[in-house]
Amino acid sequence: MKRLIITTFLAAAIVSGCSSTEEVVPDIPPSELYGSAQQALQSGSWVTAIERLEALDSRYPFGAYSEQVQLDLIYAYYKNDDLALGEATIDRFTRLNPTHEKADWVLYMRGLTHMAQDRSFMHDVFDIDRHDRDPEPARQAFRDFKRLLDRYPSSQYAADAKARLVYLKNRLANYELAAADFYIRREAWVAAVNRCQQIQRLYPDTEAARQSLPLMQTAYEKLGLETPAEHAQRLIDLNPV
């Protein structure tokens, strides 16, 4: 039944993608074109907004609206889930405008874009959380938000960035915990210890850090390391799961 649902979903997506046609952007003055792009943004018509903004960007790359067009494209790409294009536009804007007054917002959007890249198909469609999926986008998002707080501690986006760092820290810790559990089930005791130690070192204030302690104790016991196993037991007593 699940296979049928997935197949139907993918087929619908393919048909939808094939049936769309690119609208020809009218050749009108840049002020009018920008105005129509703004209307599309305000109404949430992301595809239309992107078409008009891209036309402005290609037709008038050094025009009066150049910087704002790129900023609007970053937002529109993110809202339309065009994440690769959004990241490329962020990199381009940052390279050309390293001291821009909205540099904190651009860095914040970079973090949001990487967080969106961390979503999995299974989570989006079936609300199934996969802690064991590749966490590289989450790591990048963590670095983005950390850099935002380091460079712009008074930014209006700082509070939200802090909250997202907490989420991302737990996401990354849960990935390491899933890896440690995998190694335990495979009886790869040294690898399990290494993963557990990494959780303790990098994410000591997470739930995953507490949950890793019994795994670490088991691995030490299997390796015949009595003293580390006893130390792990003391930590378990102090931090019950």
Automatic annotation (TrEMBL):
Q: Give the quaternary structure.
A: Part of the Bam complex.
Q: What is this protein called?
A: Outer membrane protein assembly factor BamD
Q: Which HAMAP family match?
A: OM_assembly_BamD
Q: Which UniProt keywords apply?
A: Cell outer membrane, Lipoprotein, Membrane, Palmitate, Signal
Q: What is its main location?
A: membrane
Spell out the subcellular localization from the entry: Cell outer membrane
User: Which PANTHER family does UniProt cross-reference here?
Assistant: OUTER MEMBRANE PROTEIN ASSEMBLY FACTOR BAMD, SOLUBLE LYTIC MUREIN TRANSGLYCOSYLASE-RELATED
Taxonomy, superkingdom: Bacteria
Per the record, its GO cellular-component terms are: Bam protein complex
Instruction: State which gene encodes it.
Output: bamD
Which terms under GO biological process does the entry name? Gram-negative-bacterium-type cell outer membrane assembly; protein insertion into membrane
Q: Specify the protein's topology with respect to the membrane.
A: Lipid-anchor
What does the similarity note say?
Answer: Belongs to the BamD family.
Q: One Pfam match, by short name?
A: YfiO
Domain (Outer membrane lipoprotein BamD-like) spans 27-235
Q: What does this protein do?
A: Part of the outer membrane protein assembly complex, which is involved in assembly and insertion of beta-barrel proteins into the outer membrane.
Report if keyword Thylakoid is assigned.
Answer: no
